[in-house]
Amino acid sequence: MSWESIYLGVTASLRETGRDHVVIVCIRKAADAAASCSYAPACAAGLVALYAGLALTVIATAVAFVGQGVADVLSRHIRAGYPDIGQAEVASGARVYLTYLAVVGAVGVAAWLWTAWAVRKRKRWARTGATVVFLLGGSIALTNLLIKDTSGDTGLPALLGWVGMLPSAAGLIAVVLLWRGRRG
Predict the structure, then answer these.
(1) Residue 107 domain boundaries
(2) Is the pTM of this model over 0.85?
């Protein structure tokens, strides 16, 4: 099975379901990167994992906004932790969280693109850079999942915390594959 056939199958499925165009672009970039990678297969697979992490970061960021717009996830979570505050304070708290998550998502997208660029250009420091970015991003995701606020509940709803961990899983896979490619 070629990268092109995988790309065509996945993009056709995404178009049928009306999924975000950004995910299709990430899949196309991953397929192009793997096809043009003339060195260790593990590094080519690492590039695919990097672009998968990019797509997961976009999806995780979008989930926060869609969840707030559709199910009022953040507002309900804030209201459950602080039942005595008014609607204006709840809305303000939700906006602060959405702004924070948008900034984290934008920095995450930049980090994925920078790391993929370094790997594609075969920079000697690419593996180390990818490892550092993974450790920083994973720490932020884990903090978002586990941190408690003054109400004693987690700062973010569990849904957003766990979805935010998905890009870190792709990052771990990418780092392992990139370091494995050094030996291969």
Answers:
(1) 3-183
(2) no
